Automatic annotation (TrEMBL):
Binding locations of [4Fe-4S] cluster: C346, C406, C409
Organism: Cytobacillus solani
HAMAP family, per the entry: LeuC_type1 (MF_01026)
Matches recorded under InterPro entries: 3-IsopropMal_deHydase_lsu (IPR004430), Acnase/IPM_dHydase_lsu_aba_1/3 (IPR015931), Acoase/IPM_deHydtase_lsu_aba (IPR001030), Aconitase_4Fe-4S_BS (IPR018136), Aconitase_4Fe-4S_dom (IPR036008), IPM_dehydratase_rel_enz (IPR050067), IPMI_cat (IPR033941)
Catalytic activity: (2R,3S)-3-isopropylmalate = (2S)-2-isopropylmalate; citrate = D-threo-isocitrate
An annotated Gene Ontology molecular function: 4 iron, 4 sulfur cluster binding
Protein name per the record: 3-isopropylmalate dehydratase large subunit
GO biological process terms held by the UniProt record: L-leucine biosynthetic process
Summary of the function given for this chain in its UniProt record: Catalyzes the isomerization between 2-isopropylmalate and 3-isopropylmalate, via the formation of 2-isopropylmaleate.
Length: 470
């Protein structure tokens, strides 16, 4: 039986193995941000340890950074986390894309963008959405702060080898259906725990046809299904995405490296612990209506009825969710009115996401009762979008055009949704209070968010979207 990409990468990285114990694995790249690193550095300092491989470590600031005036940080905790990261990077010799750097951005956007993220790597970060980097064919996962300290000190990590889950997506995506809808659909069918203990490999015709950016959106939300990580075997799309990026090998060295990367893909006869098959033809534009990402339905559907719940537990959680969300059972998704739109986050803030949203809003106006934000995932995305005039399209339509950061994805900076108000958001989490105390989040694709900004409610983008937009 052949090997999966997960087995291949894992085997190359095991430093120490003992029966019945977790493996000690080597970590190729350690990404660091301001929220989960301060205690880890304090620990090193206390134990008088150095960072083992500063050149395999890279830091940025994203969660706390203001997206309007970079220098107006009201929250003392946020300010402290940012100045502490600066000091730590200086002291321990770690490269930092700080607030003024042209490389600054959400850690999961800049890793691939700078070519730091590469096929075959093991990548960790004190952040759950590290799974995003798996789109390039790496095993990439989030770790806790004590593990951050361990990796800083040793460049290794104790990990139990995960089980493998193949998700094969075949067929043809309908008009108006994006990779965000695919992952929301998977979550709506399989729940928020189906991936527990597994690394998911996404494959099939639909994945093959996707761009790198679309693949990143899918891998990003693997964690929302409970998986340890999600990845995609690298192919020509991956290699051409990486060619010429700042940290990828150049010239002949690149060609040689690509030859090694080609070996990584799962063998045709590789055995997985589990397999899920998805038919892309049935997926419609999706909108989350509840308080976890699996509480999601198609745009033509309605909020479920309590009487249709399988058991009392499910009924209770549905009741609580629709109460928090201020919705009614049986209410049509297309009748939900929104007051805020957030296009951003590590799920959907890359250039292609912004292009799709811009195509939808071009020459139109944001609904008078809606406040709409576009927050590019990085300074580089912002610059590229501006060179294409996307900022002008958005601003003319009535959107605010911001500096890069996590922004409204979570309420750790000034961008929050007021209590009781509703936001169409391209982010990945819709838990109670995620975008602000009492805020109500609906997870959608960039085109759906853009359309919601124009109409003040959710619309069937498969009817409204122009063919060129997708
Ligand atoms: C702040 C950080 C620890 C957190 C995470 O790990 O995911 C954040 O990025 C999030 O999306 O909730
Ligand atoms: S954009 Fe959101 S999900 Fe991504 S790292 Fe930032 S806070 Fe976490």
């Amino acid at each position: 039986m052949g090997k999966t990409i997960i087995d291949k990468i894992w085997e190359k990285h095991v430093v120490h193995q003992e029966e019945g114990e977790p493996d000690l694995i080597y970590i190729d790249l350690h990404l660091v941000h301001e929220v989960t690193s301060p205690q880890a550095f304090s620990g090193l300092r206390m134990k008088k340890r150095r960072v083992r491989q500063p050149e395999r470590t890279f830091a940025t600031m994203d969660h706390n950074v203001p997206t309007v005036n970079r220098y107006k940080i009201d929250d003392p905790v946020a300010l402290n986390q940012m100045t502490t990261l600066e000091k730590n990077c200086l002291e321990f010799g770690i490269p930092l894309a700080g607030m003024d750097s042209p490389e600054q951005g959400i850690v999961h956007v800049i890793g691939p963008e700078l070519g730091l993220t590469q096929p075959g790597m093991t990548i960790v970060c004190g952040d759950s959405h590290t799974s995003t980097h798996g789109a390039l064919g790496a095993i990439a996962f989030g770790i806790g702060t004590s593990e951050v300290e361990h990796v800083l000190a040793t460049q290794t990590l104790w990990q139990t080898k995960p089980k493998t889950l193949k998700i094969e997506i075949n067929g043809q995506l309908r008009k108006g259906v994006t990779s965000k809808d695919v992952i929301l659909y998977i979550l709506s069918k399989h729940g928020v725990n189906f991936g527990q203990g597994h690394v998911i490999e996404y494959c099939g015709e639909v994945i093959k046809r996707m761009s790198m950016e679309e693949r990143m959106t899918i891998c990003n939300m693997s964690i929302e299904g409970g998986a340890r990580a999600g990845l995609i075997s690298p192919d020509e799309t991956t290699f051409s995405y990486l060619e010429g990026r700042k940290h990828t090998p150049k010239g002949e060295a690149f060609k040689k490296t690509v030859m090694q990367w080609r070996e990584l893909a799962s063998d045709d006869d590789a055995g997985f612990d589990r397999t899920i098959m998805i038919d892309a033809n049935v997926i419609t534009p999706m909108v989350s209506w509840g308080t976890n990402p699996s509480m999601t339905s198609g745009i033509k559907d309605s909020i479920p009825y309590l009487k249709d719940c399988k058991n009392e537990l499910e009924q209770k959680s549905l009741e609580r969710a629709i109460d928090y969300m201020g919705l009614k059972e049986g209410q049509k998704i297309a009748d939900i009115e929104i007051q805020h739109v957030f296009i951003g986050s590590c799920t959907n803030s890359r250039l292609e996401d912004l292009r799709q949203a811009a195509e939808m809003v071009k020459g139109k106006n944001v609904h008078p009762t809606v406040r709409a934000l576009v927050v590019p995932g990085s300074q580089q995305v912002k610059k590229e979008a501006e060179s294409e005039g996307l900022d002008v399209i958005f601003q003319k339509a009535g959107f605010e055009w911001r500096e890069s950061g996590c922004s409204m994805c979570l309420s750790m900076n000034n961008d929050i949704v007021p209590s009781g108000e509703r936001c169409a958001s391209t982010s990945n989490r819709n838990f109670e209070g995620r975008q602000g105390t009492g805020a109500r989040t609906h997870l959608v694709s960039p085109v759906m968010a853009a359309a919601a900004a124009l109409y003040g409610r959710f619309v069937d983008v498969s009817e409204k979207v122009s063919v060129e937009a997708l």
